[in-house]
Amino acid sequence: MIQNVFYFLCFLTLISGSMVVFSRNPVYSVLFLILTFFSISGHYILLNAQFLAAVNIIVYAGAIMVLFLFVIMFLNLNKENETHKSNLSKFAAVIAGGILLVIMVAALKDVDAGTYKAEGFDSQIGMVQNLGMVLFKNYLLPFELASVLFLVAMAGAVMLGKKETGERHF
Amino acid sequence: MNEIPEVIRTIPLNYYLFLSTALFVIGVTGVLLRRNAIIIFMCIELMLNAVNLLLVSFSAYRSDPNGQVFVFFIMAVAAAEVCVGLAIIVMIYRNLQSTDVHLLNKLKW
Amino acid sequence: MIILGIFGITLLIATYCTYAERKIAAFIQDRIGPNRAGPFGLAQPLADAVKMFFKEEFIPANAHKFLFVAGPSLAMLTACMSSAVIPFGNTLIINGNHIRVQGIETNIGLLYIFGVVALGVYGIMIGGWASNNKFSLLGAIRAASQNISYELAMGLSIIALLMMSGSLSLRQITLQQGGEFLGLSGLDWNIFYQPLGFIIFLTCAFAETNRTPFDLPECETELIGGYHTEYSAMKLGLYLFAEYVNIIVVSAVMSVLYFGGFNFPGQDWVRANIASDPTLAHNLVTILGIVVFFGKIFAFIFFFMWVRWTLPRFRYDQLMRLGWKILIPLAIMNVVLTGAAILFWPQLKAMF
């Protein structure tokens, strides 16, 4: 039962992931990317990482993708006027991607990734309490640095987004 | 309460390895294939998510919370990256009326 | 089973919200309001629904057909999903089994609600974009920026509350508020500890549900109908309906977080005196709690409508300034104050 759910989610992830790349219209790409994030959140729930599943939806689907959609609507990029690459370079891109896939799969085919250990297994590690403990005990400095990163990013975005004097409105 | 999730008991870890590899390759292909800067950006998000998925699955199989904390940080960094990146794209659009990356091949206008 | 019941009740209340809105508007403007269909016009929602269903389903020629239909459906779906984790009451004891009056009890309940609320904006954005109409697009863009801006302040105002409760489960948060305050049991509500947080949350709730004074995405005077300019018949109905479901959900969340959920003043006294059989007493208190909880929800819904017919609409730059320059700093200050209060609570207590 759960296996079928897993295979279905894999199928959904890969199909919607490729539709992000192959849709002609950027808005459809965004929507398929949201679908991909949902299926990845589904994987997280299967793996009992509930906190990350919720955060994945809130951060990626709820905030980042709204920004993408906002920019696409704002710039009126929804016309399908992207000048396409020549067939040769398209072909080369797909071949390069395919070769990367083949190499990675060949390299990972015989990897012994190991498996779970039944004794000492803790299914509660993905819960909020547990992650909070690890985050605020072992990773306190990176956490603080991440907040500095946000501050810098915010200042940078505001500076970039500001209209220069004399610039025309579009 | 502390029972092993069924997916961990029945699905080998290698399957997650292959899934996230495939997702990562889709992202790489997208970056190579498309010319629209926003789509390229989305493909980078796709690659980041492939890595996130792999980290979470390793973390869940080994019951080691550190991997999930890393994913949390990746999400934070991705959010910051998107915020600056989209500002840059809007800036490019203002100057060029397009987000085609091939118009940006001269280092100065 | 319970989850179907909860959906049914939410939809029923949403239906009658349309009636209540018109009656309250009429009362405030000194009119009578709908009074033709049934006694006191009580069948008016049914008449409206019939009208909506039998109108022509019109899709503009240049609209993206699939997304045009997907927009209202998504709005309705996300609105209904969030009511699943709200604890409508304590446990009912039937044949010795404790049955929770709640759809799903999860330890990330609040995060779930936030996730679903964050998705709510997609229905509006997709619908507005797919209509292929400039006014719809403007409405959609306004909705997106408004929702993103106010979600930040909303999340920050909740963080102060979470620092006190230490749990994301809505049920846990409710049960924590059942203690004594001023000698009355069941009155230990968070509103007495987080008044500033509540005001920020309330303001953001208005913005998130696109209600006046923050209804810029559908503001008639500037944008015709905003994101639903091109919609007609039941698709328009779904958008309007989703707004009412959102109001119910947000009212329920506010009751749970700040007004004690299903706790009511004097509940321990009632539990001790209402019946001699402890099981029966527990069940009766639970049922009273459900009634009180719905009372709180209705009070908030009334407040939403009251504000709608009292306050004028903000201008767009005023809206953004309020969100970014006033509410977010206030919320951060609230977090710092709460943290300091938690840290120095023993010393503060010793002083008095």
Automatic annotation (TrEMBL), chain A:
Quote the subcellular location field of this record.
Answer: Cell membrane
Keywords, sorted A to Z: Cell membrane, Membrane, NAD, Quinone, Transmembrane, Transmembrane helix
Native organism taxonomy: Bacteria, Pseudomonadati, Bacteroidota, Cytophagia, Cytophagales
**Function in brief:** NDH-1 shuttles electrons from NADH, via FMN and iron-sulfur (Fe-S) centers, to quinones in the respiratory chain. Couples the redox reaction to proton translocation (for every two electrons transferred, four hydrogen ions are translocated across the cytoplasmic membrane), and thus conserves the redox energy in a proton gradient.
Q: Provide the reaction this enzyme catalyses.
A: a quinone + NADH + 5 H(+)(in) = a quinol + NAD(+) + 4 H(+)(out)
Q: Does the keyword Signal apply?
A: no
Q: Please report the name of this protein according to its UniProt entry.
A: NADH-quinone oxidoreductase subunit J
Family note: Belongs to the complex I subunit 6 family.
UniProtKB/TrEMBL annotation, chain B:
One Pfam family of this chain = Oxidored_q2
> Which key words are in the record?
Cell membrane, Membrane, NAD, Oxidoreductase, Quinone, Translocase, Transmembrane, Transmembrane helix, Transport
Task: Supply the EC number(s).
Answer: 7.1.1.-
Q: Where would you find this protein in the cell? A: Cell membrane; Membrane
- Membrane topology annotation: Multi-pass membrane protein
Task: Write down the InterPro entries for this protein, in alphabetical order.
Answer: NADH_UbQ_OxRdtase_chain4L/K, NUOK/Mnh_C1-like
Q: Where are the transmembrane segments?
A: 15-33, 38-58, 70-93
- The domain of life for this entry's organism is Bacteria
Listed under subunit, the entry gives: NDH-1 is composed of 14 different subunits. Subunits NuoA, H, J, K, L, M, N constitute the membrane sector of the complex.
Entry similarity comment: Belongs to the complex I subunit 4L family.
The record's annotation in NCBIfam families points to: PRK05715.1-2, PRK05715.1-3, PRK05715.1-5
Protein name from the UniProt record: NADH-quinone oxidoreductase subunit K
According to its UniProt entry, this protein's organism is Adhaeribacter terrigena
